[in-house]
Amino acid sequence: MTSRGTKYWSSGSIPLIAPELLGDIISATADVAVVISDMGRVLSVLVNPGHAAYGRLDHWEGRDIREFLTIESVAKLDAQLAKYNNGEGAVRPVELNHTDGMAWEFPVRYSFHAIGPDGALLMLGRDLQPIAEMQQQLVKAQMALERDYEAQRDYDTRLRVLLETTDEAVIFVSAESGRILDLNRPAAKMLGGDVTELSGAPFAQEFEGRRRGEFLESLAAAAASDAHTTVSLTARRSERKLSMEARVFRAAGERMLLCRVEASDGQQDVPDVLGANLAALFSKGADGIVFTDRAGMILSANDSFLALADVAQAAGARGRSLADFLSRGSVDLKVLIDNAARAGHMRLYSTKLVTEYGSQIAVELSATYLNDRSAPAVAFVVRDASRVDAVRQPGVPLSDDGMRSMMELVGSATLKDIVSETTDVIEKMCIETAVELTRNNRVAAAEMLGLSRQSLYVKLRKYGLLNKGD
What we know:
Domain PAS: 155-207
Low-confidence stretches: 1-9
Helix content: 25-40%
Shape: elongated
Largest sheet: 5 strands, antiparallel
CATH architecture of the largest domain: 2-Layer Sandwich
GO molecular function: sequence-specific DNA binding
InterPro entries: Homeodomain-like_sf, HTH_Fis, PAS, PAS-like_dom_sf, PAS_fold, Tscrpt_reg_PpsR-CrtJ
CATH class of the largest domain: Alpha Beta
Radius of gyration: 45 Å
Pfam families: HTH_8, PAS, PAS_9
Strand content: 15-25%
Protein name: Transcriptional regulator PpsR
């Protein structure tokens, strides 16, 4: 090859190569060279002497090369042969995987060259085993990294669970920067902040009269002492007297301090017994308990309510409106929420609960408006009134005053007039109560009383209540 490039070879100056030398040149140029017919039968095989791993492949000669290829490589070879047989000329090299009746495979990248009018092809192969081994090493390294990452996540999860479940106040501090690396909730409570706010904050600034350098030195000195030496401190935010015991350890080449904090002012952080008791009441209580948002959409419901409403699981009620389970629907829900929001709570509201399968159960509801939060909620206690009625006395005796008032009417009016007047009084009281509960919503009041709107207006006019509340 000279500066004249390919013209040198096309000008008839290609040197004649003796047949006995051509094989050596081809075998030295390629790692493996295979001559095949247009049907794929192996005519000759040459192996580079420098690739002893291949051994001798003379047994390939006279056999179909497909016998020594993997299944996916057979399809690749057939596609290449089809291109040559169709006269498409030169084709791009292709990677084929060989199997020589053994468990191992070796990949080879072949280029195809026509060498005669009989359709024979010369396949010059380049061994890809080093590349394949490198790829396998990369895959193994990637898998090792993933295992290390999963192990790291496992350790981090264990640490998080340990910090969240222990009642002991624990703080991790960098000995180099003096900043808080991590802490749990009891420690944040003692310091007078929250975990998010205190993470990354300068540790010395959380205590009164402490400078960063000397403070860390005092902690390191206490940690290096054989005795369990504690350091007395005063938290800047909470103003609490604290005692701290530190231990030094090294992680990832960085010195860290493990600080255990205790209260030395006599105040003890007792566990939230009330919260635990309320959670137990919610899960095991006999009465149904439902929490909704301001619009009446169910946020959570306990098992007693789910059993009362024939709902299989909590997910079947969560996200639905409580009105779906009330006989008067949105009327009942609006009365309950509006009165609870106005007065803070509403007691013993009688209605009927509609179960998931359409049956109705008499219930009594109490509602409490929970407004001391960014997102107000309403808590409902649902009691099965049919069971309550079964254990109540069949009748309630009149009081002495009520009996005396009824007796005074005897003789001054007929029995029919006495009964009519008493009925009118009860009817008027019921109408006034319904109008008050619905905040003068005549449509809702009529539905609550089971009357038509026209009948309600007639009775309001009868008792002089038509303009009341306007």
